[in-house]
Specification:
The complex is a heterodimer of chains A (383) and B (282).
Chain A lengths: L1 H15 L2 H23 L5 E7 L4 H12 L1 E3 L6 E3 L1 E5 L3 H9 L5 E5 L3 H6 L4 E7 L4 H22 L9 E7 L6 H21 L2 H9 L2 H5 L5 H31 L12 H26 L5 H17 L12 H9 L1 H15 L3 H25 L5
Parallel strand pairs in A: 1-4, 1-5, 6-7
Antiparallel strand pairs in A: 2-3, 5-6
Chain B lengths: L1 E4 L6 H8 L11 E2 L2 E2 L4 H7 E4 L11 H11 L4 H14 L15 H11 L7 E5 L7 H18 L2 E6 L2 H7 L2 E6 L2 E6 L1 H7 L4 E9 L2 H9 L3 E6 L3 E6 L2 H14 L3 E9 L2 H9 L6
Parallel strand pairs in B: 1-6, 1-7, 4-5, 5-6
Antiparallel strand pairs in B: 2-3, 7-8, 9-11, 9-12, 10-11
Helix pairs in contact in B: 3-4, 5-6, 9-10
The chains are: A alpha/beta (383), B alpha/beta (282).
């Protein structure tokens, strides 16, 4: 028994001398609790909705007022906020284009004659078009709009016999997208992040630890040549990983990106690949900038784990950004994965064009540039 | 060929790292192959080859791949690179094993590969830090043989760091002995030996050595120095052949009794002991 105690003591002592390891056993699960809990517990708020108003009158104004004040509350809690952020759009065509480019999550179409019909105590039909490539938002928005309509109906019904009311025609703009399909783009981005962590700049840290880096340093290689070389290798490795995952996900989970099924859209596929390349450039530059000053590969790995979790959970990969608390939204604004996930969803499930993802590309490009310069500056050409 | 000699921790490797531009000196500078290591490190890097103490080979890759990548680091055109590589691999007898991963190589093979890898770009100066440490005597001899041949065939300046005295003595034209980060002696091996006044060494063991006998030995005019060892004395004398009979007489006449006596030439080990006060192998 004493001998077993000796073995036990050895393990405990060694564990106690590695603070990074101890911290990581707590930090990872804690981050998961905070980030995942906050993301999934939140209600969809401030969802951007296009209002196409073809009828001007007191009823339609009332209806819009109700929509504006509609509250959405967190699951099981009392924290409520405005459910929608209403955007006035002049015509249906523009609204549909905005929906396609992901600028709005839904369209509420108040038809011509809305006010006249209601004042004549007859029925009206309001068409609500939903961006169902985001299944969680779709469900929430559909029920909130219906609630607002019921509220208006109960206000304008003067007697129980009054049958003036609104019915809603809820339309899905695209074919049904399953939650697993919604989640898939974030997973591709995460595979790129994994490669960035384990195969990006860390090679430099490992080479430093093993003394191999001295072999490069005595050659005329310039520091930007070394950093760019590492970056390029990382992009190749992460692209292989992301594409392999893409194919396996299609085979194993049955996801069916609209850009490929039933008819492939070459532009959307090309832009998807470009997004993956740009994302890996950005993430690998970031991790290389971090790695070039790390002195221990172990410490680097332990600390990059929480970075990975934070970026993944705040990117909107698993839950719509509209449902996140403000502090998480603030992180998501500067999180490169947010833009990658956003672009991939638009391309994969809507076959959206370049215009829709140009903003994402601009952010990713800028981010990559800054991180690359940072990595080159931080890299020390010496022992 | 220039040798840097010194005990562990003397600063040999640090000096080499500064000369090959991977470590910045805290003060001062140096010129390698005609260029300043601080002001024009890239020009220095183009003109030197370096074999570090710890292996910097990529062991997952083959010898050919290791060499080829190095050639690319120096921007050597493909055709010239391939010719040079196959020539160099032949020189060190690795041509038939050029296509297997280096992980499967013996220590001696790895070291030979590292040495020729540092020659891919025809450097003017080749730095070798402890090229034979950790090798068995046979592998050591082979590596030294190749180093010698490279020096003779290519006329490259070689700077070898070592703590093996025989290696330094056999290979190097000039030597510097470093201790506590300072050069304590410098010159050709012969000059260095002459520095301790020339002469020979007599190692004598006694079964009985009275104080009077020791006193008489120390005072004899042909004796330059005496050091005590476990069982006897190390005596530095002017002329060994003449000193031996004289020494026997002195010991006998003072009631001492000799067990053995060996006459040998001065080695660098003696020089080393003299200038650093400690043995290399300590």
């Amino acid at each position: 028994m004493n001998k077993s105690l000796a073995i036990c003591l050895r393990d405990v002592l060694k564990f106690s001398r590695q603070p990074a390891l101890i911290i990581s056993t707590v930090v990872g699960p804690l981050l998961t609790l905070i980030l995942l809990g906050s993301a999934f517990g939140g209600a969809i708020t401030h969802a951007p909705i296009a209002i196409v108003r073809e009828s001007n009158g007191v009823y339609s104004s009332n209806f819009i007022g109700i929509l504006q004040n509609e509250q959405s509350c967190e699951i099981g809690g009392t924290n409520c906020q405005n459910a929608f952020q209403l955007i006035d759009v002049p015509d249906l065509g523009t609204a549909q284009q905005m929906l396609h480019e992901g600028l709005v999550k839904g369209i509420v179409h108040i038809p011509l004659g809305f006010d006249d019909s209601l004042s004549a105590h007859s029925k009206v039909i309001v068409t609500v078009t939903l961006d169902n490539t985001d299944p969680l938002s779709t469900a929430a928005i559909g029920s909130e709009v219906t609630q607002a309509g019921q509220q208006l109906s109960s206000l304008i019904q003067t007697s129980p016999a009054d049958n003036s009311n609104m019915t809603f025609d809820l339309e899905n703009a695209y074919r049904n997208v399953l939650y697993i399909e919604f989640m898939a783009p974030g997973t591709f981005v995460q595979s790129i992040m994994f490669v960035s962590i384990i195969a990006g700049g860390v090679q430099l840290v490992v080479d430093k630890e093993r003394g191999i880096i001295e072999g490069y340093l005595v050659t005329p290689l310039k520091k930007h040549e070394i950093v760019l070389g590492v970056l390029l290798a990382g992009v190749i490795k992460s692209l292989i990983a992301a594409v392999a995952l893409f194919v396996l996900a299609i085979i194993l989970t049955g996801i069916r990106p609209m850009s490929i099924f039933p008819t492939p859209n070459p532009l959307a596929i090309g832009l998807t690949i470009f997004t993956l390349v740009l994302t890996s450039l950005g993430l690998i530059s970031m991790m290389t900038a971090y790695a070039v000053r790390s002195t221990s590969a172990d410490l680097y790995r332990v600390t990059s784990f929480p970075i990975n979790l934070t970026l993944y959970y705040t990117s909107g990969a698993i839950y719509p950004l509209d449902g996140m608390p403000t502090w998480m939204k603030q992180i998501s604004v500067i999180n490169p994965e947010t833009y990658a996930v956003h672009a991939l969803r638009l391309l994969m499930y809507k076959s959206a064009g370049l215009q829709a993802v140009a903003g994402d590309f601009a952010f990713l490009g800028l981010f990559t540039g800054v991180m690359l310069v940072l990595a080159i500056i931080a890299f020390r050409r010496g022992l | 060929m220039f040798g840097l000699l010194g005990p562990n921790g003397a600063g040999k490797t640090t000096l080499q790292r500064m000369l090959v531009t991977v470590l910045a000196p805290t003060s001062g500078t140096a010129t390698v192959a005609g260029f300043d290591i601080l002001r024009e490190p890239d020009k220095v890097r183009e003109r030197i080859g370096v074999v570090t103490q710890a292996s910097t080979l990529d062991i997952e890759l083959t010898a050919l791949e290791n060499m080829n990548l190095y050639g690319m680091y120096y921007g050597i055109p493909r055709k010239k690179r391939q010719e040079k590589i196959s020539e160099l691999l032949k020189v060190v007898g690795l041509a038939d094993r050029a296509k297997i991963p280096v992980a499967g190589y013996s220590g001696g093979m790895k070291r030979r590969l590292e040495i020729v890898r540092a020659l891919v770009h025809d450097p003017e100066v080749l730095f070798l830090d402890e090229p034979t440490t950790g090798l068995d005597p046979q592998a050591r001899a082979a590596v030294l043989e190749y180093v010698k041949r490279i020096h003779e065939d290519h006329g490259i300046t070689l700077i070898v760091t070592t703590h093996y005295l025989d290696e330094a003595e056999n290979l190097c034209d000039r030597l510097a002995i470093i201790d506590h980060a300072k050069i304590v002696a410098e010159g050709t091996p012969t000059e260095l030996k002459r520095k301790i006044s020339g002469g020979d060494i007599i190692e004598a063991d006694f079964s009985n050595l009275p104080a009077a006998a020791l006193n008489a030995i120390e005072k004899a005019n042909f004796v330059l120095g005496v050091k005590k060892r476990d069982a006897g004395l190390t005596i530095l004398v002017k002329n060994g052949a003449e000193a031996v009979p004289k020494l026997v007489t002195i010991v006998d006449s003072n009631g001492g009794k000799l067990r053995t006596m060996t006459l040998r030439e001065l080695t660098l080990d003696d020089v080393f002991l003299e200038v650093t006060g400690r043995s290399l192998r300590e």
